[in-house]
Design brief:
Layout lengths: L1 E3 L2 H7 L13 E4 L3 H14 L3 E4 L16 E4 L6 E5 L4 E5 L4 H10 L2 E2 L12 H6 L7 H4 L6 E8 L4 E4 L12 H5 L7 E9 L1 E2 L4 E8 L5 H11 L2 E8 H11 L12 E8 L6 H13 L3 E6 L3 H12 L1 H5 L5 E6 L5 H15 L4 E7 L4 E7 L6 H21 L24 H14 L14
Helix pairs in contact: 7-9, 12-13
């Protein structure tokens, strides 16, 4: 098992996409087999050495940060394809395989893994399960949790658990597999996963729509659902466009100044047989005054071009070290919640640039406050933390979640009480003690001290 401890490797493997904490692991190890992971955990337990499981490190909550001398356990060399079962259908892979590689392997067998997001090419299966990743098609296919058929996990005691073994039906008591999904590496290190697949879906087309205001979003979603089979409804505000234009080096296909909000809407369109239905829905929304502008893809290439205006947002604003809040409320409450939240942020920090985008079809909003270029990262993070309690109080008032899909990690560890009761938190602590009695797995993450 290779070990690295040079400064560049420690910095690279010791953090995720957040930049608010220093990367200070003691070393990075690269297991290649399940047995090596088992031995690594057992030795770490004997030595009292903390471990931080590491996948593609595309997380946005500090869940993969090693800031206190932990050993980073990189899974990137455990990326074997074990089996594709075309009858179930399912795919079994080691945890270090990227989600994009899973999608490619499935496609080679005429199958489809539906969970997808912009970082799928670099994020790994183990990390996506540990964070219960969502992405752009939750509206149609749900979260990662819906697709995990089986797991192999090494607990904090060095025991290897084989959970559910890929079964579709298994009614033999508590499903420990579900505890591992979304636990962010605090209960065990995922080493292998069996994921459900689907037949290849029909071709899809994309509408890019410009909306008159927040109050138009829910009527538009309802109207489009009446005549089309939607797989995604992704919105972004006008301010996002400037950043994506600069990143992509091309102009927005609509009049960017015509509308305050835009959405990418994907729908099933085999052989483009639903184009007329889509245009009819578009015209109805125009007549109602909900939609002011729009365009419809005429090919797969055009659909990808339209998708880029939503998928490129996160990467385009990354240099500004945004302070992110990944929030959710019930779908019907999104417009009122977003309006109240936008007013709150602008009142507290009128000089900050705030961008909104997200998965409007499943109630998930991403609030991104961009760091002014003359502010240090530390001062900006502190300002964000000062704002968060008011934001989370509003989330609680709307009975929502302070983390819809990014997880808790370090970023929201101390804010968990806004969405979970003290009884729930204590039960989670008790579960942690059962799987990791010495607290060596990703310590300090998810659960407040």
């Amino acid at each position: 098992m290779q070990t690295l401890s040079d400064e560049q490797s420690l910095s690279h493997y010791g953090r995720d996409w957040t930049r608010f904490w220093p990367a200070r692991p003691s070393k990075v190890v690269f297991p290649e087999t399940v047995d090596e992971v088992v031995e690594l955990v057992r030795q770490a337990r004997a030595d009292g050495q903390a471990l931080v499981p590491s996948g593609g490190r595309t997380g946005l909550s500090g869940g993969a940060v090693a800031a206190h001398g932990e050993v980073v356990v990189s899974m990137e060399r455990m990326r074997k394809l074990i089996e594709v079962d075309e009858f179930e259908p399912s795919i079994c892979v080691q945890a270090g395989m990227t989600v994009g590689a899973v999608q490619t392997a499935a496609a080679e067998h005429g199958l489809f893994y539906p969970v997808d997001w912009a970082a799928a090419a670099s994020s790994q299966v183990g990390g996506s399960i540990a964070t219960n990743a969502g992405g752009i098609r939750v509206l149609r296919y749900g979260m990662t949790r819906e697709w995990v058929r089986g797991l192999k996990v090494v607990t904090g005691t060095g025991e290897l658990l084989e959970l559910n073994r890929g079964l579709i039906k298994n009614n033999t008591g508590m499903d420990l597999r579900q505890l591992m999904i979304g636990s962010e590496g605090t209960l065990g290190i995922i080493v292998e996963a069996t994921l459900g697949l689907l037949p290849t879906p029909p071709e899809a087309s994309v509408l890019l729509l410009g909306f008159s205001g927040l109050d138009a979003l829910m009527p538009a979603l309802a109207e489009l659902r009446q005549g089309l089979s939607l797989s995604a409804f992704e919105f972004f505000d006008r301010r996002c466009i400037d950043h994506v234009e600069a990143a992509l080096g091309r102009g927005f296909p609509l009049d960017a100044d015509a509308c305050p909000y835009y959405a990418v809407v994907e729908f099933e369109d085999p052989g483009q047989q639903n184009q007329e239905a889509a245009l009819a829905r578009f015209e109805a929304l125009m007549e109602a005054g909900h939609v002011l502008d729009g365009t419809l893809s005429q090919s797969g290439a055009q659909a990808e071009e339209l998708w880029a205006w939503r998928e490129a947002i996160s990467e385009s604003i990354a240099p500004r070290t945004p302070y992110k809040n990944d929030l959710s409320v019930r779908i019907s409450r999104v417009p009122a919640f977003l309006e109240a939240l936008d007013a709150l942020v602008r009142e507290r920090y009128p000089d900050f640039e705030v961008l909104w985008f997200g998965h409007i079809g499943d109630g998930n909003l991403h609030m991104n406050v961009l760091r002014p270029e003359d502010w240090s990262t530390e001062d900006f993070h502190a300002a964000g933390r000062e704002l968060s309690p008011a934001v989370f109080e509003l989330v609680q008032r709307y009975e929502g979640s302070v983390s819809a899909e990014h997880g808790v990690g370090l970023l929201k560890r101390d804010d968990l009480h806004w969405s979970r009761s003290e009884t729930e938190i204590e039960l989670m602590r008790a579960i942690k003690r059962q799987f990791d009695p010495d607290g060596i797995l990703n310590p300090g993450k998810v659960l407040p001290g």
